[in-house]
Amino acid sequence: MSANSLAHRLVSIIDYLSTGNIVNVHDLSVEFSISQRQIQKDVELFKGIYEIESLGNQNYRIKDGFKTYSASNDNLDIALALLKSLQHSAMPQMDRYIDPSLPDIKEYKNMFILDTTYEEITHTDEFYKLIKAIKSQESCSFLYTKKDGSSKQVYVHPYKLANFSNFWYLLAYDVESEKLKSYHINSIDKVMLAGENYINSISIEKEIEDTFAKFNSVWFDGNPKSVDLEIVGNAKLYIQRNFPKQATLIEETDSKLLIKLHYYNSAEVLSFVKQWLPEVRILNNDVIKIKLKELLQKSLKNL
Known about the structure:
Layout: H1 3-18, E1 23-24, H2 25-32, H3 36-47, E2 52-56, E3 59-62, H4 73-90, H5 95-98, H6 124-136, E4 138-145, E5 151-164, E6 167-174, E7 179-184, E8 188-197, H7 202-214, E9 225-232, H8 233-241, E10 247-252, E11 256-263, H9 266-274, E12 280-282, H10 286-301
Antiparallel strand pairs: 1-3, 2-3, 4-5, 4-8, 5-6, 6-7, 9-11, 9-12, 10-11
Helix pairs in contact: 2-3
C-alpha cells in the first residue's frame, strides 16, 4: 500500500471519530480494502492520542467530551500543504522522507512561500543518531569543535533539539560539568551511543521549559543576568509592536520605553543594542557599555 493511501486512511478514520461518528472495523476494512487486523491496529494507534471507547462488536467512538473539530475538506488540505511547505523550507534534507508520507494537494501545492532560512544540517548522520539517542534516553559521546577551532570529547545525556535564530543545537546535560549545555549541531561529529540509558530528570526538563519560555538564547548557563535599556524614536515604536520575550517592561511614556533585558551572555545585549543605535541607551551596566564602545571603534576602523 502506498504512503499516500496510508495517510488518506488514517486521516479518514480520525475524521470519522473526531466528528462523533461510530466506526466499525469490518466496514472500514471493506472501505479501504485491507484486513480487519490492520484496521484494528489503526484504532489502537489512535487510542494513544484520543479517549476512544469500545462499544462492542468491533465498534468504536471517541468518548463524550473529547470530540474535536473535523479536519476534513479544505481545512485539512490547507494544513497538509502548509505543513509540507514549512518542512521543505525549514529542513529540506527531510524531503525524501516527508514527501512520500504526506499527499500532495494540487490546489495548494505552490501557494505558500515560507522563508524560514534555517541553517542546513550538514552532519545528517550525526543528527539522526542524536534523534535516536533522545528517543531512547540513551547517553552518548561525540567530538565537539568549538569556535576557536579546538575540539573536545564530551559525554552527555541528550534532551532536546532546538533552533535558535535559525541555527540548530543539541540541548544536553554535560556529565563532566554537571549542567545543561547547548551544542551547535554542525559542530558535532563522531556520535557514539553509549548503550546506557539515563533517567529523564524532571529538574532539567523544567530548566529547559522555564528558560525557553523567557529566552531565545544558546548561552544559557543557569545564571541569567539583566540590563536596563532606554529606547526612543522608531526603535520604541518597533519594540512596542514586537516586544522581545526576554525583556520586562519597566516604564512606558509617549517619548520613551524603559525595559529590563534578560540575558546570559553580553553578546545578546550587544546584538540587540547595535541594531537600534542611536535610539537605545544602556543605563546601568558599565562593563557592557565599554564592550559596545570597543566594538563600535573597531568597526569604524575597518570601514
